[in-house]
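User: Hi! I have a protein structure encoded as tokens and I'd like to know what sequence might fold into it. I'm fairly new to this, so please keep things simple.
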């Protein structure tokens, strides 16, 4: 597995695969071809279908800056390799000097057409399955956060402090911003109203919903957020961790360790399945975010490694089959509410684990495998194309 730094990234919303990935790809291609006079980028599959709502063309043009770039939406062609295909072309005057076919595979990560999907170049972990990690941590008697630190090194601590700082900044910005979200749906921000309810009547639900909505609404506005594991699911982990900190007065050091646990779960899914809504539906985004949050919360409440694995398994298991069908291609409906609901689900799961213990029949590894199979069997109209599901049943 790669570093969990690939799970937690700071960048602009509203989509890690549709904005962050294309922005990174655009910069790489631009830097490689400084002599080019103009460029062209063809978007395929999900990038074409929901690119307008996800600001894909906007971020590409912004990244190329003063350089002329034509963005073309090809709604018909879909590569079997991955639905989020981009083909860049560089021209000097009238001559083609370079081209690059690349795919945005989720969480801001890129893959080329000839790369194996399960191949990672910067692997630092010796294990790729949770069962192997459980055996190893039991053998040498270490916790999941100690396992992460062992292979990531001390640098991960500073990195995650920066991640935590941005999570707090994003939530704070969202809590104190009102108005209508961009796009044609006229969705009104609600985080500040939930927070006002919390201030009058302090309770867990109001605070969790406020925090989750704050991050998600910032993401929908195209502002800076933290992928966890994606932009569209950025509100879950931050809402759970920051609400727990506020209600229990724990320090940032403990939250950084919880982020290590959450990152480990997200890493396992990314390695063995997918966190791309265009590839496996929203189970790969909100489902994985809930799994990460439930594991982190279970760590914070003193659960064993086996109980943490169970929490992650429950969370992902009960999001199996969740479709990705954003209305108008915007990361707003049903995405924002899903962040809030999944955040409370993580709390419910932690409480369930407290009552039932660690004994269970289905492993996290099995659920990750099933999630991958389910997502790939899912009809394309339910995988971030906005051509089916809720996306075509909005009012009016």
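Assistant: Happy to help. Inverse folding works backwards from shape to sequence: for each of the 396 positions I chose a residue that suits the local structure. Here it is:
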């Amino acid at each position: 597995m790669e570093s969990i730094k690939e799970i937690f990234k700071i960048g602009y919303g509203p989509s890690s695969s549709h904005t962050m990935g294309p922005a990174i790809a655009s910069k790489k291609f631009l830097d490689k071809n400084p002599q080019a006079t103009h460029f062209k980028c063809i978007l395929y599959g999900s990038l074409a279908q929901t690119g307008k709502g996800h600001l894909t063309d906007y971020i590409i043009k912004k990244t190329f800056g003063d350089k002329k770039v034509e963005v073309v939406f090809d709604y018909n062609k879909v590569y079997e390799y991955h639905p989020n295909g981009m083909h860049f072309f560089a021209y000097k005057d009238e001559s083609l000097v370079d081209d690059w076919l690349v795919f945005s595979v989720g969480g801001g990560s890129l893959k080329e057409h000839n790369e194996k999907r399960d191949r990672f170049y910067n692997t630092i972990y010796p294990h790729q399955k949770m069962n192997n990690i459980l055996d190893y941590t039991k053998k040498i008697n270490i916790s999941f956060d100690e396992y992460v630190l062992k292979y990531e090194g001390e640098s991960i601590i500073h990195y995650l402090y920066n991640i935590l700082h941005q999570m707090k900044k994003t939530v704070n910005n969202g809590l104190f911003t009102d108005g209508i979200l961009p796009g044609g749906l006229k969705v009104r921000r609600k985080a500040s109203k939930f927070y006002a309810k919390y201030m009058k009547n302090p309770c867990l639900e109001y605070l969790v919903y406020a925090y989750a909505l704050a991050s998600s609404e910032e993401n929908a506005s195209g502002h800076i957020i933290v992928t966890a594991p994606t932009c569209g699911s950025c509100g879950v982990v931050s809402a759970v961790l920051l609400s727990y900190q506020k209600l229990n007065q724990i320090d940032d050091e403990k939250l950084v360790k919880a982020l290590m646990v959450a990152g480990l779960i997200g890493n396992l899914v990314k390695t063995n399945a997918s966190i791309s809504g265009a590839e496996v539906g929203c189970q790969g985004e909100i489902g994985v975010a809930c799994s990460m949050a439930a594991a982190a919360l279970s760590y914070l409440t003193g659960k064993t490694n086996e109980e943490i694995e169970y929490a992650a398994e429950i969370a992902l298991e009960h999001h199996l089959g969740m479709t990705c069908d954003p209305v108008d291609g915007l990361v707003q409906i049903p995405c924002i509410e899903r962040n809030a609901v999944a955040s409370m689900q993580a709390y419910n799961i932690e409480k369930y684990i407290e009552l039932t213990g660690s004994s269970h029949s289905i492993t996290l590894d099995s659920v990750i495998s099933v999630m991958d199979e389910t997502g790939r069997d899912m009809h394309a109209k339910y995988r971030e194309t906005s051509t089916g599901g809720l996306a075509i049943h909005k009012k009016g």
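A useful reference point when you look it over: The chain has 15 helices and seven strands. Feel free to ask if any position seems puzzling.
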